[in-house]
Amino acid sequence: MADDHHGPTVRIYLAVFASLMFLTALTVWVAFQDLGMFNDVVALGIACTKATIVILFFMHVKYASRLTWLLAGAGILFLLILFAFAMADYVSRGWLGMPMSQYLQ
Amino acid sequence: MADHALHHDHPHGLAHQFEDMPQQKESAVIGMWSFLITEILFFGGFFATYLIYRSYYPEAFFEGSSHLDIPLGAFNTVVLIVSSLTMAMAVHKSHEGNKRGILVYLTLTGILGLTFLVVKYFEYSAKIEYGLVPGLVWHPHGENSPQLALFYSLYFGMTGMHALHMIIGIGLLIWVFVKTAQGTYTAEYNAPVEIFGLYWHFVDIVWIFLFPLLYLLGTQGGGH
Fold first, then answer.
1. Which residues pair with B133 in a beta bridge?
2. Rounded average pLDDT over A11-18
3. pLDDT for A27-36, tens place per residue?
4. CATH of domain B19-220
């Protein structure tokens, strides 16, 4: 059983807040640098980092029971399945020269 | 600290089916996360659609994105992050049973939520003014106008659904505020404050992804 009084301290909240603000400034700055295709990679990497920080500390998952970890993880897992299977379909449509593929690219 | 439940009398706020307060809170948190999974996948559908059409029409998406106001988007990002901090502080105060603390931080969170919506209102107004609302007022008539309309449909769909979540969030916030003011929550019984916090942080996370994907995309002008 998770001890609900064992949450993060105010000091940790402020550190989390500061890092979220820093990452927001960073993502805006990076957007104006020409990194070619890596602009997207860096922007998504920063967004994922920010989301992870919010989930672990503001949403207390770091301090929660293993069942909560499982549920949070399941949400992300199913999201990745959604992306992977949808993209596997759309990206590969032109590959086999099927009759419809010319209309989709 | 929560071993008052061992007493024979029924603790305040404990439903009959639960052994004790920690078990009840654990169930509430798990129930909320189950709901959040459906929310993750609901927004996931939007993000998957965005991903697919962006990979099909990168130029139109860059162009559409370049019409969005980065300073306003960044400002709203900051507003939501600050509101997440104040929400986390409200939950923190609820663990101490500090009624006044909860009320102060909920008020701040609500004001920041409303600030976000006001900024969004001005952004939407500008889009209507420039005729960038597919199906309502649509002025672009270049070669890639249909693809541009797709970007703006996704922009209004995603930010609109996010704004709806913010409006529902402010409604829930008022409810939690009233219950707090009535003295419902104590250091032992405060799960509703915590559960509402989970919802608020989730809505913040959605915006954390919307901001770079919609606003920051256009800065490189499709130069790759």
1. B137
2. 96
3. 999 999 988 8
4. 1.20.120.80
Q: For residue A84, give the chain B residue with the closest CA.
A: B48
Residue A105: which domain range?
Answer: 65-105
- Look up the ipTM and state it: 0.89
The per-residue pLDDT for range A73-101, each reduced to its tens digit, is 999 999 999 999 999 988 887 787 766 65
Residue type at B76 in one-letter notation: N
Are residues A18 and A28 both part of a single domain? yes
Is A32's CB within 8 Å of B41's CB? no
Q: Average model confidence (pLDDT) for chain B?
A: 92
The string of DSSP letters for B58-99 reads HHHHHHHHHTS-HHHHHHHHHHHHHHHHHHHHHHHHHHTT-H
Question: Which A residues 39-98 touch B at CB under 8 Å?
Answer: 39, 43-44, 46-47, 50-51, 54-55, 57-60, 64-65, 67-68, 71-72, 74-76, 78-79, 82-83, 86-87, 90-91
